[in-house]
Amino acid sequence: MQGIDAYKQLIEKEITELKIKDEPSGLYSPITYLLGLGGKRMRPILSMMSAELFGGNPKEALNSGLAIELFHNFSLIHDDIMDNAPLRRGYPTVHTKWSEKTGILSGDALFVVAYHYLAQNTVTYLNTLLHTFSVRVMEVCEGQQMDMDFETRDDVSIDEYIEMIRLKTSVLLGAALEMGAIVADASRDDVQRIYSFGENVGIAFQLQDDILDLYADPDKFGKQVGGDILANKKTFLLLKAFELADNDQQKKLQELSEEVDEQMKVEETRKIFDQLGVRELARIEMERHYALALESMELVTASVEKKKPLLKVAEYLMNREV
Amino acid sequence: MQGIDAYKQLIEKEITELKIKDEPSGLYSPITYLLGLGGKRMRPILSMMSAELFGGNPKEALNSGLAIELFHNFSLIHDDIMDNAPLRRGYPTVHTKWSEKTGILSGDALFVVAYHYLAQNTVTYLNTLLHTFSVRVMEVCEGQQMDMDFETRDDVSIDEYIEMIRLKTSVLLGAALEMGAIVADASRDDVQRIYSFGENVGIAFQLQDDILDLYADPDKFGKQVGGDILANKKTFLLLKAFELADNDQQKKLQELSEEVDEQMKVEETRKIFDQLGVRELARIEMERHYALALESMELVTASVEKKKPLLKVAEYLMNREV
Questions:
Q1: Cα–Cα separations (whole angstroms), residue A290 to A166, A196, A208, B31, B114
Q2: What are the alphabetically sorted keywords of the record (chains A, B) (predicted)?
Q3: Which residues of B touch A167 (CB under 8 A)?
Q4: Could you tell me which chain B residue has the CA closest to the CA of A74?
Q5: Residue A105 counted as domain residue
Q6: Fewer beta carbons below 10 Å: N end or C end of chain A?
Q7: Is residue A216 part of a domain?
Q8: Do B148 and A101 touch (CB under 8 A)?
């Protein structure tokens, strides 16, 4: 996938050369800091790949892709405050390194930069891109709100969970592809199809995340296996387990949510998950969304050859072990 | 000023009919709440008046004006968190009524709505409007950062203070006029002139605010006279006093900053202000910016008759007692 590397280089170059001012440094240095922590830059890469798929010039998707990437980073700053997260990509989060105030304000400023990049697009597509971007980022906000609401609720259904990860994670992957298609002048149907491909890959990706968090090979995983269980996070696995558990298992799961012995908490919870077969059910749900993604791609008006790079990315995301 | 009332009605109608969704309510109800607290809607009124000044249709400035008004409200939500403010327009601030998390996220969502309104403009002016809006709202972020930086600094100069209020308050008044001029197809010079008019009126307005906070008629003022002194706020008056004070007065001002007897703190500080004549100096600085505003308006290519309504607004703002 040489194309992807070339795209990533181009994106990194743009991000390094972002005209972020120096003063007031309290506003701008947290932005430079966060963007400097790296990241896969998956979203802008997807925008460029989508433009290429539809016969457009990938470089014309760069501004939209960057807008999405910058919005993504903005949302990380604010989400990390809301989630009290100390680390991001192994480094202190902005609000930990500076302060919550700084996190709020420099996040806002980064949001402005995101719209600024979006506005660099030629006037032909500007209306459509702006509309699409606003709709999608609003959905991301809704997803974050649902996620926060879930923390204090004990009646979250699997459907609600899927809807939350769709909004919080998948919509932006879909949007990256969608906006690449728009600047490549794809048909309205194709824009919708490539969005749907991205959205479903995103949902499958997040379900894979839920599974890996508990069942990954600890030697390869790079972070603590069972982190979600320790944080009492309402993942697909836990919600499904509560749905299927009998009274005894429900009681046990409740007790385990307050267990302080970390090893025991993870092991005993996993035992119940295994009894109920929730890992397999998560895998089935993941495969279902992956299949939906492939169906959408099937319908896209482009040659099989042209579709290969994006299909490879999806396949890679599904088969990852970390 | 019948026109202004008509504009305000139109603006209120738009704000009431804003298509804010219901769910998730944690995200959207704080927005409805804040917008429902009212406000003078000065910024969108200025946009409409500016469009009319330049022979445009005031209604065509509505979307830009609303974008500015919504951004202003967004910034109030986030600023209130950063400033730990309990009340806004006499009612609990969003983060007090809900939570900081809610304030951060629903603020973000309101920012998206602001850009959404901006994007409703016809494609002819869209690029210019987007660019102007992004530049101006970034300046507002810079102003808020400077204001926060000032809290922990003891070497803030008068020039820095004027720059801070320019960015934090005045730029947005200028931007409202500027964007009204853009949609009315005013010349580039006139756009710059009307912006400068608004910016200088804004600075004069803020200096008037500093003066009124201490010297207003308590019966008319509606809030505690001397609030800035009690909060040790670095206003023009205080900064100028420190600049002019002799050693004894400096020492006294330092001591007063820690005085707990509120009445004594206000009275004794005012005594030093009066000895140093800082009220008069603030008035002179205010008049200077008002004169600059009038000079800019003088240069605007429009009849004296057409300029009258905006000049009346400026005059009203300068001569207010509350």
A1: 13, 11, 11, 37, 36
A2: Magnesium, Metal-binding, Transferase
A3: none
A4: B108
A5: no
A6: C
A7: yes
A8: yes
**How many structural domains comprise chain A?**
1
Burial class (CB in 10 A: 0-12, 13-18, 19+), A122: exposed
Q: Searching chain A, which residue's CA lies closest to the CA of residue B140?
A: A109
Residues of B in contact with A142 (CB under 8 A): 24, 27
Is residue B81 within 8 Å of B100, Cβ to Cβ? yes
Single out the residue of A116, A190, A84, A246 nearest to residue B101, CA to CA: A84
**Residue pairs spanning A and B at CB distance below 8 A:** 98
Q: Give every CB contact of residue B288 below 8 A, 6+ residues apart in sequence.
A: none
According to DSSP, the residues that pair with B91 across neighbouring strands are: B88
Chain CA centroid to CA B253, Å: 28
Contact check, Cβ <8 Å, B127/A127:
no
With beta carbons under 8 A apart, name residues in chain A contacting B148: 26, 101, 105
> How do the pLDDT tens digits run along chain A, 322 residues long?
458 999 999 999 999 988 788 889 999 999 999 999 988 999 999 999 999 999 999 999 999 999 999 999 999 999 999 999 999 988 999 999 999 999 999 999 999 999 999 999 988 999 999 999 999 999 999 999 999 999 999 999 999 999 999 999 999 999 999 999 999 999 999 999 999 999 999 999 999 999 999 999 888 877 778 999 999 999 999 999 999 999 999 999 999 999 999 999 999 999 999 999 999 999 999 999 999 999 999 999 999 999 999 999 999 988 887 7
Domain limits for position A307: 210-322
This complex has an ipTM of 0.93
Q: What is the least distance, in Å, from the CA of A74 to any CA of chain B?
A: 10
The b/e string for A226-240 (b: 16+ C-beta within 10 A; e otherwise) is bebbbeeebbbbbbb
C-alpha–C-alpha distance, residues B54 and B60, integer Å? 12
> Helix A123-151 and helix A171-183: axis angle, to 10°?
180
Q: Which two tokens stand for residue B251?
A: 């020492």
Min Cα separation B201/chain A (Å): 24
Q: Is residue A177 part of a domain?
A: no
3-state helix, strand, coil in chain B (%, to 5): 80, 0, 20
- Cβ–Cβ of A127/B123 closer than 8 Å? yes
Tally of CA atoms within 13 A in the half-sphere of B267 that contains its CB: 5
